Batch of 2 targets.
Target 1
Amino acid sequence: MERFSVQENKLNHIPEDIKGLLPENTVKTLVPQVEVNREIHPAKPRYRNEFAKYIIFRSDACIHCGKCAELCPHQVHVLKSGYKLFATPKNYLCTGKACQKTDHFCIDQCPEQALRLVENPMIKALGDNRWPSDMLLATWKMAETGAPPAEEYEFDYQTGNSGGGFDRMRFKFPEKPPVELSDDEIDTSIVLNRRDDGRPKIKIDVPWYGGGMSFGSVSNVTQLSKARAAVAWNTFSCTGEGGYMERMRPYDEHMITQVATGLFGVREETIQRVPIVEFKYAQGAKPGLGGHLLGEKNTPAVAKIREAVVGISLFSPFPFHSVYSIEDHMKHLDWIKHINRRALLSTKVSTPTDVDMVAVGSYSAGTHIIHLDGGYGGTGAAPDIAKKNIAMPIEYAIAKVHKFLVDEGARDKVVLIASGGIRTAHDIAKAIALGADGVVVGTGELIALGCVRCSRCSAGRGCPRGIATTDPGLVTQMELDWGTQRIINLYNAWRIDLVEILKRFGMRSVRELVGRSDLLMHLDFNNDVQSMNEVKPAMDVKPVKKQAPAAAKPKSKKPKKAKSEQK
Ligand code: SF4
Ligand code: SF4
């Protein structure tokens, strides 16, 4: 069966009334768009020996009777046809100690006691406090199967160990949902234009889109996988600030292009291609530092697209030297609005202490989306000292901006998007409960592609997984179909988890969750998030008319509920 169907829609993806507004150049540069199926297919790990929490050792006592292979429901033991000896066990499929309680525990059932189970000592070195090993293993499992990991894996994946941020927040779930809802009754879509300015009311099927990662910082396969998954889920991906690859053109209608301080590869024509243009003022992981691509990552292909010289380091300075006031910002937004008459504008800022003033200023200047980028995100290329010490924690910034926009009467005219360390569906839901309409995800997508959080992203040949590299030898480690499917699967698993949360609150739409900080508790603030920020639940919640189309729920075991959360 063909995995992806390709359709040429003969440029009719742009409404006729909007087409009339477009400059001639825009229409000339339009290319047929490609559709990507949202179907869920298993996408197994691409390395032979995937990281595993447990390891099974088989001794010479094994008589190859095949009983362990017969017993194990997870296909850990493999006897390839034509072979006499068992292959190395597929340890990453083993549920380990949880299996002891079952009657198919191969270690006990082996007639020769030839098997031994140990915890993998390498797991202790895998991940970090923000992305602990269980979260990595669970995300890989979601990207493989398209569903939350089965309960018997006992992954504690919904919070990390950072000791702050979303890791210290919990939902206060009611004893039982106020109304019983089925999955099909839950709408997870959001609209990205709340202004009545004649520009399209773009709706995405899930309350998230992919973050900007430039060609150069990541490979073309990584960028394209993200873009194709965005098409499948009717959401967006972002080019980052490294120019617009020609190979991205068939996905234009699901792309955001970034205009950042370096203006690498930014041309009128690239701005005219897309439905959303993002002004990037700062990155939450390194505010005040700008962007930096080391010379060794500036390969001929990267230099060409960025209109730069091969091999030299490329900097995007921190400020736009043409923007020192809201009026200057407005001038920039007007410039883009004029060049692309259908585009929505997003303004990406980090989270200084006066971020609420920045947000309301940007709203006044005419932006459609305020994108707050907090400090918990960033790839390994962002310096740790910056990631951990500069920006205001995103959970404070979201609540602060949401409240200020409500007080100013502007909240229902602008879309608030949060990013920076959104790792799971629970993080997504928490950000929304604090006041965001939706989120931007970045690192999670890289994890789905097999990232191991080694923090070598900045080096030209540093990425062992061929994700954050442009080195021709490393890039070929990943295939586009595989990368696309992994991100499609991860999105589906996140949506299942998000729907579960909404169901437990009896909410029919993710929009009902916006600003409901009363549903959260903070383990540091008298168990009350509201006392942390004095955030009031606000927002007029409009009735939901239509369901967001969702992918078929794959057959999977029951998702695990967080041990630490209230029932
Ligand atoms: S059950 Fe024991 S003896 Fe039989 S194949 Fe498995 S490990 Fe070998
Ligand atoms: S595996 Fe690659 S993308 Fe992930 S942290 Fe390491 S270098 Fe960066």
Note: The first helix runs from residue 16 to 19.
Target 2
Amino acid sequence: MKRVLSLAKDHAGRHAHLIRILKDRTPMPLREIVLDPAFNTTRVSHVILTARDLDASRRFYTDVLGMVMTKQDDDALYLRGLEEACHHSLVLRRTGDAPVCLGIGYRVLTDADLDRAKAFFDGKSVPAKWIDAPHQGRTLLVTDATGAPMEFCASMETVPRLMQAFDKHHGGSPQRLDHVQIAASDIQAAYDFYVALGFRLTEYTAKDGSDELWGVWLQRKGNPHDVVFSNGRGPRLHHFAYAVPEAGNLIHACDVSASMGYAANMERGPGRHGIGNALFVYFRDPDGHRIELFNTHYQAIDPDEEPLRWDLSNTSRSQLWGLPATRRWFVEATQFAGVEPSDAVLRADPVTLETFLANQT
Ligand SMILES: [Fe+2]
């Protein structure tokens, strides 16, 4: 744990250098997609957080939301969705400090892709070093353009899928990790960095009347997004999201949450996003980390499909049914370990529920 934190601090120290490297971008905000990246990232695969009480976290994620516990020891809790055959898609490491995010994990297709990734990042002077990560194969820790830690691995211990163990399904029946959203202070820099890795833009939000990017939805696995960057004080982890089988699972998760005394943990929804078309509900875990349960994403594979633009003032991009999210949903997020967030470069605020109601006559 201490070693991971020290690595994160080491990487953060070189963040300014990385940002300078990425400042050579052109004024054109949307870039050509990269169909033959230097290495093959297949999907976002896991999130590593810290938690103050692992037993409380286990009760919330398994008894309330319905996730599967693969392993718990004195230092960590390893969780996964019902259909996942990987050892973990969510890791919670014990801490006595303020809860943070230790990193976002991605899978590459082969072990050789890891070596190609190391050479790629070394060639661009992007911080990248090998680390030991329990239950994973070789793992490469990288600092992305926002300053957030990301790690790549090509293999992980496998476990049985439980998608047909219907007697074990409860809560929201989360099936698999689908995406993460990160608040970032410079969306263009984040976008440029991930496009170079082969991530493809499916939808984006721009400030009205301009091409200034407020948010980008980027994918590798063929649906709307693996990672989203939204404008704000960052880098901070806004949320991570698990897919559920049916809309009814979202409602049942809310009912179970309320009946077990976790009503206050429901933060937003159910509702439907305009961007991505997801039916959603957001929860805050016992440490304040935000998790989304959702379904009904769409397929996004063919490279000739143009990214869909949304104006920032269009509230239906975040809530198709009308009322926008509270200010709290937009501004609260989890810090990355040892990475001090900075204010957003773009000064453009979304419409919050508070401002929406204040403007009603
Ligand atoms: Fe999401």
Note: The radius of gyration is 19 Å.
